[in-house]
Design brief:
Length: 371
């Protein structure tokens, strides 16, 4: 059993480095193995990580000796390639990171909040519980450059709204299909948690949910019906997540039941973890977002456009952090960055306050009496 230690890096103001979203915790060996896999040579791998050939060669040999396993197939005149053990090691590390991404994100946010107080006593902090979303990670990075710390905690959409209602956060993030039916499972789940007049929506983004499948879509999957019919291995999201709600609602509408999906009980806690599972060959398909599929080199079959909203209690709209957040969401620089992410589109209502009644058809005004 290998021993694991953790550390973190502090970057001076103005020298922040863009986080590697696929690997929130960096490991030198895994970085080297990934570089060799992508480049096919030790020299090119060394250049990509900014180290000398001699140093990289020595480090790989040292790791092979320490692990007692060959990592690189060393054949003169042939491209460098990973051994079967190194392939498994790299995939295992990436899978573990994907599964732990929400917890790592929460730890990272807590450290950043603590140090923000030390370095900038006038900083603004905003606690957000939200359904897992890649754009929110980018938003946190962008906000940090403007002295707005987003204490971002990923959880299911249902749990996020409950955290807001219980006073554990200032803003919650959840998603729902475009104009879901008032009697749908999504409506029946969210409606008791949200109160017109009490809760206010803040426009964030539109994204696409669909099937994440292996590169080339070897099973030619185009729908959940195909997944059920082909009996391929499905990987699911956890109960309480918006994606799990979406799946259950779609199964209901298609006349399918949970047992029709082989792997319905196989659960992962984020889009990233589902994508990593498929990329590792442990499953064939799962619902998720296009950006997660792109990160892991998967194909994506778009199926369900949806709106992702931020929601807060009405009094919070006048707080300085929420006003700063809304201004950031409407800024051209942020909107341009969001457009570069796979599967996301923006609207002119980004950062704008919206009422529940105007955006979600679950509440009806009482008809006025006549006569």
């Amino acid at each position: 059993m290998q021993h694991i230690d953790f550390s973190y890096h502090l970057a001076p103001p103005g020298q922040e480095t863009r986080r590697n979203r696929q690997s929130p915790l960096r490991n030198p060996l895994m970085d080297l193995l990934q570089a060799v896999r992508q480049s096919g040579s030790i020299a090119a791998a060394a250049k990509s990580v900014g180290l000398s050939y001699r140093h990289v060669w020595g480090e790989l040999k040292r790791w092979e000796q320490g692990l007692g396993q060959a990592l690189i197939v060393w054949e003169k005149g042939q491209p460098a390639r990973l051994t079967g053990f190194a392939d498994k090691l790299l995939w295992a590390e990436r899978q573990a990171q994907a599964r732990l991404a929400p917890q790592i994100s929460a730890l990272q946010a807590e450290l950043e909040k603590t140090f923000a107080v030390a370095f900038d006593p006038a900083h603004q902090a905003l606690a957000i519980y939200a359904s897992h979303d890649d754009a929110l990670v980018m938003l946190r990075e962008t906000a940090a450059t403007q002295s707005l710390h987003l204490d971002l905690r990923f959880c299911g959409s249902v749990d996020a709204i409950r955290a807001l209602n219980e006073g554990r956060c200032h803003v919650a993030g959840f998603h729902a299909p475009w104009q879901p039916d008032a009697n749908s499972l999504v409506a029946r789940t969210y409606k008791p948690l949200l109160k017109p007049g009490q809760h206010k929506l803040i426009g964030f983004a539109t994204r696409e949910q669909g099937l994440m499948v292996a590169a080339g879509n070897p099973w030619r999957l185009q729908s959940l019906v195909d997944v059920a019919r082909a009996k391929v291995r499905y990987v699911n999201r956890s109960p309480g997540t918006g994606t799990r709600l979406l799946l259950d609602q779609c199964l209901e509408g298609l006349g399918l039941v949970a047992s029709d999906l082989m792997g319905y009980a196989h659960e992962e806690n984020s889009h990233t973890a589902v994508a990593a599972c498929i990329a590792a060959g442990q499953a064939d398909a799962g619902l998720g977002i296009a950006s997660a599929a792109a990160t892991h080199g998967l194909d994506f079959v778009p199926l369900y456009p949806e709106r992702y909203w931020l929601v807060c209690l009405a009094p919070a709209l006048d707080s300085e952090p929420v006003k700063q957040l809304r201004a950031l969401l409407g800024a051209p620089a942020w909107l341009a960055g969001l457009q570069t992410m796979a599967g996301y589109t923006t609207h002119n209502d980004s950062g704008q306050v919206q009422s529940l009644r105007s955006m979600l058809p679950w509440w009806r005004f009482k008809s006025q009496r006549t006569g």
